[in-house]
C-alpha cells in the first residue's frame, strides 16, 4: 500500500527549466564593498546604504541559528553571488515591449503571462527575476485607486519617507541571522501601500524566479495597509533544477494600521532537490506583520518546495481587538526538510489568533511545526486556538511538533491541539472498493486533510495548490 | 561560570570515584553552565543555585504520611533491617556502585544528573526478586534543612513479574540544595507504582529526576506533585525498551508566591505496541512561574504506539506565568499520538453557577480549582497518600493569591 | 453471476476459509449466516481484494471474470460492491466529492458517459432521502463524525448510486436500532432487480425479516455447512449456532 501511495505522490518538478538569459552577475563573495556595489547599482540614496552597512556589521557579529530540526551542510557565504540581473534590464525598459522576450517566455512557461490583456483580470503581478523586478502590471489602474504597487528598489527613490519610516520597523536589522543578511544585501522585491479606507481593487501578486546559478536571492517585501484599508497579496516562487543548493533569504514586513486587513498567501514551490537530497533551495525566510487596533493579518501558506525550509510567518498583535491568522500546508517528500510554523504575540486587549497547520511527510523527509503563542501581561481577554495535524505517509519520514505556549495574563485563553495520522489502509481500501484508483485516492485523502487551509486561499491559488499536491479538483463538487 | 558549579567540579575531583563516575565528571567538565539560551533551561534561571553555599549537611526525615505504612528510608541513615522476602536494599559506597544499574536508565543530558553521578554521597540500591509482590511501599524521604546540600541516588531493579511501590518525598522551606535522581528498571511483566512528592517550598531548592526503563508488558503508574520553590526542577524520562509496556504519568503543580516549578518529561517509544498516557495539570498564582516541557519521541520501530499527552493550566494572577511546550517527534507512521495544552483562568460559567447557588466567590473559586487538581489526586492508586495530600492542597488553595 | 469454487483463504497465515462453494444467479438474494469467527466477513473482504487477505486456493468469477486477477478498484468497476461492517472515516473529503470520483471512475472503466454534475447531485439527493439522511451529509466528510447508524445508511446510499451487479452487505444490521434497520432494509429492497444479486451477511435472523432472502447458507469454520430456503434462518434463530458447532466438532472427531 505504501508503495502505491509513494507513487501517487511522485511528481516531476515542472518549473525546473533554465532560461538562457545573459546576465550581469557579481563575482561570488561578500564584504562591505559588495554591499556598497549593490547599493550603487540600484543608485540608492546615502541613508539606504548606511542602513545596509549597519545591518552587514550586525550580521558579521551574529551566528547562524542551529535550533531548527533540520540539517544541512554549512553555507559558504563567500561562494554565493549576491547580485544577478538580466543584461537587458540594465537600460530600464519602459514598457513590456522592450523587455527581453526570453524573460516574458519564462513567465509564460510558468503560467504567469505578463501582458495585461492575457492576464487574469483581477490580479496585478510584480515579476522578480533573480535580483530585479522585470515588470509590474496594472500599475496605472492601481494608481487610480491610490494604491502603490512597485518594485521596492523603485520605492526607495519615489517614496523615501514611507520606506524610511517602515523598512525594518517590523523585522529590525538585528532580528535574526538571515534577516540581518537580507537587510545588508536585499536586491529587490515588492512595495505596496494602500491608502486610508481603500479596498485594493485587485489581488496583488509577486512571482519570484531564481534563474542564475550560484546566486542567492534576497528579496524584501514591504506592505503597508493604512487605516481601514484592505489588500490581498499572493506570492509564488520557483527555481531551476540544479545540483547545487541555492540560498533564498527573504524578509517580508506587513504593517496593518487601525482597522486595516492584509491577507498574505504564499504558494512556495522552489526546487526541492532530488530524491536523495542533492540540490534544492534553502528557503530561510523571515515574515512578520504588526497589527494595530482592530487590524487583521492572515497568513496562508502552501509549502511544497525547497530542500530546507525555515520559515515562521508571524503576527505581532499590538492593537486592541486585532486578529492574527496562520493557515499552513507543508508537504515534504524525498529528502526535504521543513521547519515551519508561526509566532503569535498577543500584546493588545481582546486580541485573537488562530493557527491551523497541516504537515504531510512522505519519503525520507522531515516536517516540523514550530510555533510560539505568547500572551503578554496586557493581553486581557486574548484568545488563541491552535490545531496542528500531521499526516505520515510511509515509515521512513518524520513528523514533529514543537509548540511554545507562554501566558502571563489570567484572562487570556490558549488552546493547543496536535494529532498525527496516516493514510490508512482502510481508507485506501474503501476508495478502491468504490472504484477509485490508488493515486486518485491518495490525492483525495491528502486534499481532504488540507481542506481547512485550502479554503483560505484565493481561488486561483487554491487551484494551483491543489495541482501541486497532485490533487485534481475536477468540477466544482463539494 | 557559576561559583557553585566550579566548586562542585572541584569537589568531585577530590573524590575517589568508580570508572563510571569519573566518566560523568569528565562529561560534566565539558558541559556549559545553562543560560537562558539553553533550551532545557529556557524558563528556569539558576542564579539561586549559582549563589548557593552549603553550611550544614544534616538530613532529617520528613513527617509521616498518616495512614500509610511504609518502609522509610532516610538518606544517610541506617536502613531498616526487617524487609519483606524478596526485597533487598543497601547503601553503596561512593567507589562501589553497581555497574549493572548505575547510570543505565538516566540519560546523560541532565546537567544535575551528572552532578549527582559524581557527588551522590548516598547511593541506595533496591532489588525486588522475580515474582515478588512487595505490598508495603518504600518511602525515600528527605527534609531539606537550612544550609544543607545533599545528593542522593536511588537505583531500583524490579525483576520479572515483581511489583513495587516507591515514594520519593521532599519537604522543607529553608535555604538548601538537593539533587535526587532515581533510576528504575522494570523487567518483563513487572509493575511499579511511583510517587514523587516534591513538596519543598520557598528557599529549598531541588533538582532531580525519576527515570524509568520499561520492558515487555511492564507497567508504570507515576504521580508527581510539585509545590515549587526558588528552584524546583524534575526530569521524568520513560523509555519503552520492551513491547506492550504501559506508562501512565500524572503530575500536578500548584504554585504561589515567587515559586518556580519546572517539569520536563521525555517519553521514548523505542519498541512497538507501547502505550503512554500523560496528564499534567497546573495552577499558578501570585508571581509564580510554571514550566512544563513534555516530549514524546516515537522511534522508527515503534509502530502501533499509542501516546497521549494532555497539559491543562489555570493562571490565576497577572503576575504569574505559565510556559508549556508539548512536543511530538514521530518517525513511525502507524501510531496514534496526540497532545493538547491549554492555559486559561477558572471557568467563569462554573463560577457563576456555584455563586448562583449561594456559594461565596472565593469559596467557589477554591472548589473549582481544587476539583481541577483533584481529578488527578483521585486517580492515585494509593488512597492513604491521596487522603494525606488533599487537606494540604486545599490549604494551599485557600492561601493562594493572598 | 457469481461462482465461487473451493475458496480457501487466510489472514496472517491463519486459514479462515477452508473450501467454500457458492453460486449465485442474477436477481437472487442469498443470506450467509453463522457464528462469530466463521469467516463471514472474510468472504466479503477476500472477494473485494482487501490487503492482508490471501487466497490460497480456489476461484471466484463474477460474470465470467476472475475476480482474483483484478485490483480492488477493478473489481468495483466490474460491479462488485461491499457494504462495510465498519465504514472508515475520511476527514475533509466530502461525500459528494467522493461519490463523484467513484462514479466517474466506474463510468470511465466501463466506457460510458458519466452523469453531469447536476444529474449526480439530483441522484445523490434522492438517495439521501431514500435512506433518511439530511442533505447536509453530502457536504460532510466521508463518514466523518457520523453515528454508527448514519455510517451504515451512507453505505446503502453509495450502493444506490453505484448500482452494482453484486452487493455484499457485511453485517449491515449490526449496531442499528429497529427504525434504522427498517430504513436500511427499505433502501436495499428498492435495489432488488432481475439483474442484481445480493449477499446478506448477518449473525442474526432479524435483518432477514426485512430483506427476504431466496436462499440461506450457514457458514461455519470456513465452509458452507448447510443451505436451504428462508425457513433455515428461523431454524437457526430458534436453535442458535451451538448445535452446528458441536455437530461440526463431532464430525471432526468421527
Show the helix and strand layout.
The complex is a heterotrimer of chains A (478), B (402) and C (254).
Chain A: H1 2-9, E1 23-25, H2 32-41, H3 46-61, E2 84-86, H4 101-109, E3 123-129, E4 132-136, H5 139-144, E5 148-151, H6 152-158, H7 160-166, H8 177-185, E6 190-194, E7 203-209, E8 220-225, E9 230-238, E10 245-248, E11 251-256, E12 261-268, E13 280-291, E14 296-303, E15 308-311, E16 314-317, E17 323-332, E18 337-346, E19 352-361, E20 366-375, E21 383-392, E22 398-407, E23 413-422, H9 425-433, H10 438-454, H11 459-468
Parallel strand pairs in A: 3-7, 6-8, 7-9, 8-11, 9-12, 10-13, 11-13, 12-14, 13-15, 13-16, 14-17, 15-18, 16-18, 17-19, 18-20, 19-21, 20-22, 21-23
Antiparallel strand pairs in A: 1-2, 3-4, 5-6
Chain B: H1 3-13, H2 19-29, H3 47-50, E1 59-60, E2 71-73, E3 87-92, H4 111-119, E4 122-128, E5 138-144, E6 149-158, E7 163-171, E8 176-186, E9 191-198, E10 204-214, E11 219-226, E12 232-240, E13 246-255, E14 260-269, E15 275-284, E16 289-298, E17 306-315, E18 321-330, E19 336-344, H5 348-356, H6 361-378, H7 383-399
Parallel strand pairs in B: 2-5, 4-6, 5-7, 6-8, 7-9, 8-10, 9-11, 10-12, 11-13, 12-14, 13-15, 14-16, 15-17, 16-18, 17-19
Antiparallel strand pairs in B: 1-5, 3-4
Helix pairs in contact in B: 2-4, 5-6, 6-7
Chain C: E1 2-11, E2 14-24, E3 29-33, H1 40-48, E4 53-62, E5 65-66, H2 72-77, E6 80-83, E7 90-94, H3 95-109, H4 117-130, E8 141-142, H5 148-162, E9 166-170, H6 178-190, E10 197-202, H7 206-210, E11 215-220, E12 223-228, H8 231-239, H9 242-253
Parallel strand pairs in C: 3-10, 3-11, 6-9, 9-10
Antiparallel strand pairs in C: 1-2, 1-4, 4-5, 7-8, 11-12
Helix pairs in contact in C: 4-5, 5-6
In words, what does this structure look like?
- The complex is a heterotrimer of chains A (478), B (402) and C (254).
- Chain A has helices at 2-9, 32-41, 46-61, 101-109, 139-144, 152-158, 160-166, 177-185, 425-433, 438-454, 459-468; strands at 23-25, 84-86, 123-129, 132-136, 148-151, 190-194, 203-209, 220-225, 230-238, 245-248, 251-256, 261-268, 280-291, 296-303, 308-311, 314-317, 323-332, 337-346, 352-361, 366-375, 383-392, 398-407, 413-422.
- In chain A, α1 packs across α10 (438-454) and α2 packs antiparallel against α3 (46-61).
- Chain A is of the alpha/beta class and 478 residues long.
- In chain A, strands 5, 6, 8, 10, 11, 13, 15, 16, 18, 20 and 22 form an eleven-stranded mixed β-sheet that branches. In chain A, strands 4-3-7-9-12-14-17-19-21-23 form a ten-stranded mixed β-sheet, covered by helices on one side. Chain A has a two-stranded antiparallel ribbon with strand order 1-2.
- Chain A has one domain (20-419).
- Chain B has one domain.
- Helix content of chain B is 20%, strand content 40%.
- Chain B contains seven helices and 19 strands.
- In chain B, 53% of the residues are buried.
- In chain B, the strands form two sheets. In chain B, strands 1, 2, 5, 7, 9, 11, 13, 15, 17 and 19 form a ten-stranded mixed β-sheet that branches. Chain B has a nine-stranded mixed β-sheet with strand order 3-4-6-8-10-12-14-16-18, with helices on one face.
- With 254 residues, chain C is an alpha/beta fold.
- Chain C has one domain (2-92, 164-253): 3-Layer(aba) Sandwich (Rossmann fold), CATH 3.40.50.300.
- Chain C is built from nine helices and twelve strands.
- In chain C, the strands form three sheets. Chain C has a six-stranded mixed β-sheet with strand order 6-9-10-3-11-12, sandwiched between helices.
- In chain C, α6 (178-190) links the parallel β9 and β10 (197-202).
- The N and C termini of chain C lie far apart (37 Å).
